[in-house]
Amino acid sequence: MSIRFTAKARRGMVALTIAAGLAVGVAGCGGGGDDKKPEASASASKSGGSGASTQEGTDEPIAELKGEDGLVLQIDSVQRDSGGFLTVSGEMKNDGDKAARVSVRTAGDETEIIRHGSSLGGATLVDSKSKKRYYVLRDTDGRPLTTTGMPRIEAGASIPVFMQFPAPPTSTTDVTFQLPTFASAPIQISG
Prior knowledge:
Layout: H1 2-27, E1 42-43, E2 63-66, E3 71-80, E4 85-94, H2 111-114, E5 124-127, E6 132-135, E7 158-166, E8 174-178, E9 185-188
Parallel strand pairs: 1-2
Antiparallel strand pairs: 2-3, 3-4, 4-7, 5-6, 5-8, 8-9
């Protein structure tokens, strides 16, 4: 029964996140031209190089973080909402040649989060300038507000993922995204 509730809660959070993202997107359509846009794609490869600039309307990710077993976390959006939250959304892709599971270590090491099963609850945002770390939010039952119960991902396949954090102050536009078993990457907050 809790698996069904968790899946239902996850679907509800994804729908809420999409609705909030659409509301922010529509509200932000002013054509001012001076909106802050993510500037570079961060690659967590050994070379540490960055890719082409990201422009609205392109398929370029904000960042790609390489993990274990051919898994790649592609971050497509980092959006503030008016409720004081920050939602990081993207895809977990399997670039390997065989099926893979997301490591249980991505849930982090907090007992409260671990007891709710596999998740991306170990994700953090680090604001080096203000010397602050932001952790994934939780609901009233202690469940992380992230994608949970991730299935095995077949080779070449991907699944949508999200994580919600408390929003840093509006003066903070650049943070470092961290997820256990994946490389870290700098990301830029929009909205």
